[in-house]
Structure formats: structure tokens, C-alpha cells
Write a structure and sequence with these properties.
The protein is built from 15 helices and 13 strands. By secondary structure, it is an alpha/beta fold. Helix 9 packs parallel to helix 10, helix 13 runs parallel beside helix 14 and helix 14 packs parallel to helix 15. The N terminus is likely disordered.
Length: 479
Amino acid sequence: MVTAAQQTASAPDAARTFPKGFLWGSATASYQIEGAAAEDGRTPSIWDTYARTPGRVRNGDTGDIATDHYHRWREDVALMAELGLEAYRFSLAWPRIQPTGRGPAVQKGLDFYRRLVDDLLDKGIQPVATLYHWDLPQELEDAGGWPERATAERFAEYAALAADALGDRVKTWTTLNEPWCSAFLGYGSGVHAPGRTDPVAALRAAHHLNLAHGLAVQALRDRVRAGARCSVTLNIHQVRPLTGSDADADAVRRIDALANRVFTGPMLEGAYPEDLFKDTAALTDWSFVQDADLRRINQPLDFLGVNYYTPTVVSEADGSGTHTSDGHGRSTHSPWPAADRVAFHQPPGDTTAMGWAVDATGLYDLLRRLSSDFPRLPLVITENGAAFDDYADPAGQVNDPARIAYVRDHLAAVHRAIVDGSDVRGYFLWSLLDNFEWAHGYSKRFGTVYVDYPTGTRIPKASARWYSEVARTGVLPGA
């Protein structure tokens, strides 16, 4: 990836042209696509356990087979090449590489990723490897999971194994994907694995994920080839007030601390926000933050990965208990520690199959805020996309105009942010394939490639062809 030149357009066509060197890709995650859950030494992750627990995942779906990418990876890489993707963001499965979360690597697991990376490089596609996309080895969860410091230390050892095996070929690394989800949905509301509902555990998990990130960056930089890039991917919430009241502004501040600054503070600035400590003082004194932790967490990054789908609207709670539309799944337990006085509201406008509001202005505002807060840190959109109720017609075609409109509007927002001064260097569409969508099972389709789950057949949707042309030309067409 190279710096995206900030272009001030003077003609309509130029206004839709992305800078030379802008990176176009697509993304997936290991548990969502690989399958082969018990092959070649892989042991259960927390998502294997969670999915097999009755009532946790819609229809009792699991990732045991998923899209069978473990066996069909050549077909999938060929499809990426056919679509003209320049980069592929994928995640390594920790329990496939290091089944117990301790000790030496399993070579068959590493060999799978070696073959995948070699084929990507052979076809001119840049591999972008994410070390952790939520599939913690179950044995580490049994020992306490992310609320325990030891898990961060084990993660650094795993990062070293991955870097030793792939660091001569993979030039771009991401430590964690959306640690907010891992901490607060996994240990707070319980709608993600491991399904625990303890607000203090969620806060402890957030800190140890931060620490894991910092230790992993150190391990990567010690081992990967010179010139390799290190990053983290955060699902920064674009939080907006329902009204202009001071109370709603304070609700925004409180959720911004829990959703965003709990990670950007230590990772990018070397300190937790003081208002977060004050807000959560009744729950914890944060004594689990040890001396030198912040120095270890605050590692230089080459870019920040940004995942965006929809904005978040909040207000001061009115006591009715009815405003809980935070978009992260239903639970009797909140993923927002010490935020009982905050209400969440469904934003206006059209929605996707996830019930998420379609609002590309949120992405523009988010990019401009990040550019203001961290002006020297390049940005990459590492996930953006939408689920819709796609189906193959009798001719075997999948037309998804709503997804094309969604992606077009969000790419227009990215382009506008670049023109206005944001250093955005790439865009990864979520996702390449329809896949296992966590607690929703196979009921939600995010892919630009349709997967017929009984047969595994892949069918590029109209959006895949449309995105392929944008990636090939670097030009975003009008509506």
C-alpha cells in the first residue's frame, strides 16, 4: 500500500477517481469459512463450543463445515483472481496452528496457510493476515480466557509462531479484529463466544486484549521481514446523540469511552481515558493494569484498520427500558458496563437484513474524526459491507442491487474523506463469501459471492462483478 494522494477534484469524473495505489480487496475470517473443525490437529475454539451449546446460534448452526474453504481454497483464490482483487484479508485460526494455545505449532496447520499465501502471491494478490478473529483455543478459555493476563502472554507466543512461518511472505499483519466484540459481546452481554456475562470480566478482557496487541506487535517486528506493516482493526463506533441536550452529549461521551477510547487510548496514545476510569469506578479500580503495560501496548503502527457498518444513536435513558437498539444482539445482560443510564435508538432510514441502518455519512464522519485525532496514522477500511436476503434465480444468477447501492454510497464517503484530507489507503469489502455469521448462523448473507451451502457451489453476485470493475479501474461510477 502506498500513500493515497489527496486529490482535489475539479471535474465530476475526477471526483470519482481514487488515488493511484489505493488498495482494493475483500475479507473473510477463519471460523466463518474454513470448516475442517477437527482436521489436521485443530482442536475446539470458543466458537466451536459456543455454537454447539443449544440456543446460542440460530438453527443450531456451527462452523464445522462453513464454506469448506479448508478444502476449496484453490477455487476461492482463483475466484479472487478472476474478480481482480489486489489484496485478500484473512485470519489465521489459532487452534489450527497451536491447538492448546501453548507449545509448538502444528505444521499441518501452518502448511495450510503457507499454501494459501503462496497461491495468493502467485496470482498477484497481497495476503493480509489477521492473527485473531475471535477463535480463542478452548483450553485457554478454560484457564480463564481474555480476562486473564496469561492469555495475552500466550497470544504473543502464538504471534511469534505465525511470524516465523509466514513472515517471509506476508508483508501486512493485523493483530486483532474488533477487540470490542471479543471483550464486551463475549464477556459482557454473552451474545458472542464464550458467552459470559460479567461486566468486570469484560473490562479485564479489554485490557488484556490491548496488552496482547502490543506484545504481538513486538513479536512481529522482531521476526518479520524488513518493510512489513503492522496494524490493528477496530470497529470504531460512530456515536451520535439523539437530541442536542447536554444529557445526550454525555451519553455519547460515555459510550465513546467504552466503545472506542478504551482501545485507541492505550494503543495509540499510551493511556486510558480518565473518564472511563471514573465511569466504571463502582465496578473496578483497574488494578489489573500493571506497571509498564501501557508502554507495551502503545506500539508504533503502520496503519489503523477501520471496520464500519452503521452509526450508533444514543440518549440519556428515560427509564422505560425500551430503547435498547445497539445493533449487537439481544441479551438480558448489557455489553456496556456502567452505562445503565444510556439508551440506544434505531437510526432512521433503510436497513440491511441485520436491521442496521444504511448511513454512509457515518463512515465519512468517522474517517474525518480519526484523521483529526491521529493525523499521522494512515487508515484502511478493513471491513465494510451489508447483509441482504440474497437468492439464486432460476437461471442461477444472484442480483443484489441493494448491496451495490450500499457499497457505492460508502465508497463515495471514503472518496469524499480522502478529498477532504483523510489518508485512507485501501478498502476491503466484507465479505468475499457468504459464510457463518456468528450467532446468526447461516441466516445472514454478507458475501459478494453466493454460497449454496448444501453443495458448496460459489456464484459471484452482481455486486462482485460491479466491485471487480471498480477495483480494476479505480473509478467509482455514479448512481
